[in-house]
């Protein structure tokens, strides 16, 4: 991975009367509740994380944990109270209004939790809106808008107004709009929440395809762990404005660093998350046919049960990287650990 | 004088409010009694002339300074020239005034047809019928020219007020400091009696349509500002953020995101602008602007009830049409066309409107009656209605009823009340008002009430102010006795409630002038008519808010009462009325504001109050006096407004409503 596209250092976002003054006098170690008792709300609390180019970072957490607020800080829809955020090597808080507009017009796209469609514009005009703001001519922007509308499966509804569409359709308009400018960095705030499972699945696939093809940097918020597992390179789990843990799905379920994360992932079927590659201990040589590093424990279930080897070699792209302990893998499969 | 009461109210915070209030009332009563037995020094009864500052002269000096020395007059005269060209142009188009562009008048049938198409577009056949019918009626009854004189000012003033209100509203929304300055100014502007708009317009702008247009515009601006600000503030944050993420510049944000998203509120503002413009443009009759208002004034003055009635109908029809059409526009949301819809269907209404306009303009060239309805051809039945009404009033029963109402009102209610109010010493009066404010609202209100009424006393127009107040209180009290029971009865059934509410809504759109017609019709040009017209006018909000208050009582509360076995009466007294009271208070407040407004219009009938003096100032150039009188009315109205609204808010908070 190259240099990070988004790099957040000690970011704070506090809501209240005089957030900056309050943050200055804030003693370290004060909890979310303490801050609330002082009459302020800590939307984001001392968050540091990097998002690499082409990476898909999924943010999870309970309602009100600050997910949307953090993403709004990344796109500077909120001015942060403390810390710094770099996007593409530029400190985003220092950008002039003009530069910020340029950045948003050319590099950033965002899908909003409650869609944020302009009520007075048709689907077509909503999707073409960012292009119109960029000053593209009517013909080009129409062509491009029709393309993305087709992509999200709304062809034929171009002339509808938002209030004439269902929630899921509105959400897809929001997705299409954010896609219209082909952003490098893409913020998605629960983009599939209003879709039915079938379309949801389709959209996720479409998403992975786009991601593989275009290599966009994506920050994705969701409440749905399955969705997170399908999409995420890394998952950040938030609680009360702070990031509790930010790691690969395997690590989050295998090695939760806090009790909260452990509880959060308790219900998950780990066999579906953990990959052979993660279980492989380097330097240990197994014998016989190696298994693929990218396979999950669940996918290996039949082999794990039937095989008699203690150590099974794991190979990544034909190269053996170590061996996994069959008993340990079986424990995961049987939820023993 | 006011200083003593002010001090009393502020230096004794330890005293409970009630005791203090009662003490003040006691003091006032004592003073009044002393006055009756002749023991009160004269300077406590009425402020001696010597200490009354010459406010009017001071104000005149300020006006003159602004007008001449600061060169404001030169500026406004410059504006006048521009406005005059526009007004002349609309006058030429609508009723053929001989000015540029010299192509008018447009045949009435073309305008009526176009109005019908617009009505059809906005609200279907019913609206088309209403809009077209209004204009057909106006032409047929022979009032086309005067109606168009009114419209020619309206079509200039309303868009002007819209644009200025929109710009100021946006500025106020952008800049909190501007907003902070603007808000109190708007509050005062909205309680200023309309007369205070008229005279400055005459002085700074030319007499006639120009002054009328300026006064009308200024009068209609405040609600547009408020609605614009409200709408912009209500735009959903995610829509704003979506705009930002699309890379909008500030201007693009405003133009493509905020204003379209605030469409509803802005259009509600447009509706209010149109209705206020209509109300005011009719009133500009007082500064000699020709049109429907002037004609009505003249007809009522010479007791030509039949013609007055017909003009009244025209005004009402115009008001209802404009109101319904602009309201239909508020709720009319764009709808999509299917792909491949041909051009002529997409623009069906535009083509229809153009077609109707061109078609009737052409036909009118050959069929003169469609172009202009002559005096002889009109269907006016003024004389006949006059005879009809005279005969009706001459019926013994009717006559005895109107006479006895007039007699009872005058001898038993109105005159004694007026004499009593006038007999209270000024100082005692101020004390009483302040005490009432203290008991009903709070200390702050008590102090302000004392200051406001003290100022009224200092202007030297005390007696006339008291008479004004008396008319207002008398009329509103009677309206209360009639309106509240009507509201209670109407609120019982959903259907009647809706019907009455609709009637109230419609009645509220009528320009105030209209309310004089039935009063004069029944009681002639007498003091009773004044009270009657105020009474009818102020009953509308009372009925309306009583119904709304009762209807908004939460269901679980009435259900709880039902389950406790309350009778209908018990439920009404113990549950519904107490909970509806704050809302009813808002209606009461509005009734009082309406009454202050109407009392001045009614002065035209001949009264001895501030309105009469105000009307007199209009004939001259007494700007200072005009303002002093206007401020007297404003101060009294503001006192009521402040006290009642504070009470209603407190009550609401205590009842846990909202
Ligand atoms: N503009 C604001 N003003 C004040 N408080 C805010 C604002 N925006 C968010 N908050 C507070 O910040 C906290 C985090 O809100 P946020 O919207 O980021 O939650 P979330 O994790 O996105 O929740 P959800 O899953 O429900 O969308 C909440 O307590 C919220 O009340
Ligand atoms: Mg959220």
Automatic annotation (TrEMBL), chain A:
PANTHER family: GLYCINE BETAINE/PROLINE BETAINE TRANSPORT SYSTEM ATP-BINDING PROTEIN PROV, GLYCINE BETAINE_PROLINE BETAINE TRANSPORT SYSTEM ATP-BINDING PROTEIN PROV. Its EC number is 7.6.2.9. It comes from the Bacteria. GO terms for cellular component: plasma membrane. Keywords: ATP-binding, Cell inner membrane, Cell membrane, Membrane, Nucleotide-binding, Transport. It comes from Ruegeria pomeroyi. Gene3D superfamilies: P-loop containing nucleotide triphosphate hydrolases (3.40.50.300). This is Quaternary amine transport ATP-binding protein. The complex is probably composed of two ATP-binding proteins (TmoW), two transmembrane proteins (TmoV) and a solute-binding protein (TmoX). Pfam families: ABC_tran. Signal peptide: none annotated. Residues 23-265 form the ABC transporter domain. SUPFAM superfamilies: P-loop containing nucleoside triphosphate hydrolases. Its main location: membrane. It catalyses: a quaternary ammonium(out) + ATP + H2O = a quaternary ammonium(in) + ADP + phosphate + H(+). It is found in: Cell inner membrane.
